[in-house]
Specification:
The structure holds 2 protein chains of 2 kinds.
Chain A: H1 6-15, H2 23-27, H3 31-35, H4 46-49, E1 68-76, H5 80-89, H6 95-102, H7 109-127, E2 136-155, E3 159-176, H8 191-203
Antiparallel strand pairs in A: 1-3, 2-3
Chain B: H1 2-15, H2 17-28, H3 44-49, H4 68-78, H5 117-143, H6 149-169, H7 184-188, E1 195-216, E2 223-240, E3 246-266, E4 275-280, E5 294-296, E6 308-310, H8 315-319
Classes of the chains: A alpha+beta, B alpha+beta.
Chain lengths: 211, 326
């Protein structure tokens, strides 16, 4: 049982320019045959579309809109469920901090995440008018489920089980500027806030049957 | 009891580094034992055979990383024939590939005194070229009877404005009505992901034809005409990046622009049109204004060090090929 990636192969077929081509071979019309090789590695398309949006010009008195860049790596041979932990780790970090932290994560997927973030950082400077590469933070970092290859495993009594080989997509959006203090909306309250809440709660109490 | 021993031993153990090391090592090693495997290794192969082997596709593989031999073997494996080599070179017959006998703009816009040696030489050359220009205009008139330099200048200005408007609108469909195939890549270079605001405010001097040439391509009758028009105008240019932030220029500052634009027409073609063919950039052009942001200087293949410098010739300026400040 073998599975191939056909799209890159077709790409390389188009690149491959052999000097020795049989004259008979050129007569064979192969395009329909090549079309029959349906590419199975569907890459997510929508996320990268955000990179194409052009925002209207701003007036000089407006605060400049922070630049952002979306980037992804698709079909990484790693479990999406395991990748989620790595994706969560870097949320709300500066790019440099995220890369530094990921260097110390021993999970296999950390390498792909780090490379994706580095690629996105370079892309931001190269194509999206970001002046300083270190002035970026990880605004979004999430995982998608990719291609699943199904295999078979033998069980006793003429039965079989299914083995699933998962791939995952990793998506990252880097935004220009400093990261916010709290990435998530619901974050632990500061001590003085807690005290205030408690005081309010205490003062709101109503003693039943009182005046 | 144990506590007492620990209390007694504790300080002593801490003092002796060797003992402390052995203690910590015993805590480090966690060994997981699997209890689902048979103890006898003779079943190992049978266990392995239970799972059907799947050759997983390598999605991270890039076709450009593969060697030719690898590609060959892959194609052979799948029974795909190597494709027919596609060595075609596209070329257009509707425009020429360059500016022939390009106009050389006189330094200081021709204000140099004819008493000086340089000035006298320029005047002489100017006269010589003028006669050839007149001949070329006569040739154009033989194809296009109502050709007149004064009316043509108005037409040229319209084409010039239209071209810039289309560039600002990023309308690539209609661009080739106003731009030749040779100038097209120069015009559309670097305009993606940007918003361009351009406006022609007024003419400081009326545009005038300074140069004209005709040439034949392949056959005698297949004639192309090129005219160089001098524009001295006041323009406004502001370039915004994808996020609407100002990259270059300004909405409120008008700049004087002097430029020599070459127009071309396929005279032999009944349906030929005057189109923008290029721009003459003189050597004595003053240096471009630096951009607003800094960037890493792209390094050569040989050197590996990268240095941060302030921009002197930014990308943003190259993308608008039609501006030269005087």
């Amino acid at each position: 049982m073998t599975l191939f990636r056909t799209r890159p192969l077709l790409k390389l077929v188009s690149q491959y320019q052999s000097a020795v081509v049989l004259p008979a071979a050129t007569k064979i019309h192969t395009s329909a045959f090549l079309q029959a090789w349906k590419p199975e590695d569907h890459e997510p398309q929508k996320f990268l579309e955000y990179n194409k949006k052009i925002y209207p010009p701003q007036s000089p008195d407006e605060a400049p809109r922070p630049a952002f860049v979306c980037h992804q790596r698709s079909n990484i041979k790693y479990s999406p469920w395991k990748m989620w932990y790595i994706a969560c780790l870097v949320r709300g970090m500066t790019v440099d901090e995220a890369i530094k932290q990921l260097k110390f994560v021993l999970m296999k997927g950390a390498k792909d995440v780090r490379e994706t973030i580095e690629e996105a950082r370079d892309l931001a400077v190269k194509e999206h008018n970001v002046e300083f590469a270190s002035n970026l933070w990880v605004a979004e970092s999430f995982v998608g489920k990719g291609h699943v290859v199904k295999g078979i495993r033998r069980h006793g009594r003429a039965r079989f089980g299914r083995v699933e080989y998962f791939h995952c997509h990793y998506f990252v959006r880097l935004e220009e500027g400093k990261p916010p203090k709290h990435y998530y909306q619901h974050h632990p309250k500061e001590p003085h806030q807690q005290l205030e809440d408690w005081l309010q709660q205490m003062r709101k109490r109503k003693i039943t049957n009182s005046i | 009891m144990a506590l007492r021993i620990a209390n007694l031993l504790g300080p002593r153990l801490l003092n002796e580094p060797l003992v402390a090391l052995t203690v910590s090592r015993s805590h480090d090693q966690f060994v997981r034992h699997r209890h689902t495997k048979h103890w006898n290794p003779k079943w190992k192969t049978l266990r392995r055979q239970k799972v059907m082997r799947v050759k997983l596709p390598n999605f991270q593989e890039k076709p450009e990383d593969l060697s030719e031999e690898e590609i060959r073997s892959r194609l052979k494996e799948q029974g795909i024939l190597p494709p027919r080599p596609w060595n075609e070179k596209p070329f257009f017959l509707s425009c020429t590939g360059g500016i022939f006998e390009a106009y050389v703009p006189p330094e200081g816009d021709g204000k140099i005194s004819p008493i000086q040696v340089q000035g006298a030489k320029q005047k002489l050359q100017y006269l010589e070229k003028k006669s050839r220009t007149m001949m070329a205009i006569r040739k154009i008139k033989s194809f296009e009877e109502e050709f007149d330099t004064a009316t043509f200048c108005k037409e040229a200005e319209d084409i010039y404005v239209k071209m810039h408007d289309l560039m600002a609108k990023r309308d690539l469909e209609n661009m080739t009505d106003y731009v030749t195939e040779r100038a097209y890549p120069e015009v559309i270079h670097n305009i993606e992901n940007k918003t361009i605001h351009w406006k022609l405010i007024k003419n400081i001097e009326l545009p005038r034809v300074v140069h004209a040439r005709c040439t034949d391509v392949i056959t005698k009758e297949n004639i192309f005409g090129q005219t160089t028009v001098r524009f001295h105008t006041q323009q406004m240019l502001a370039v915004y990046d994808r996020f609407g932030r100002l990259m270059h220029g300004s909405e409120i500052i008008a700049k004087d622009v002097l430029e020599y634009v070459v127009f071309e027409k396929h005279l032999a073609n009944l349906y030929g049109k005057w189109r923008v063919h290029g721009k003459i950039i003189p050597d004595w052009l003053p240096p471009k204004e630096p951009s607003l942001i800094t960037y890493l200087k792209p390094t050569e293949e040989t050197s590996t060090t990268e240095t941060a410098v302030t921009k002197t010739s930014p990308d943003t300026e190259q993308e608008i090929p039609k501006e030269s400040n005087t």
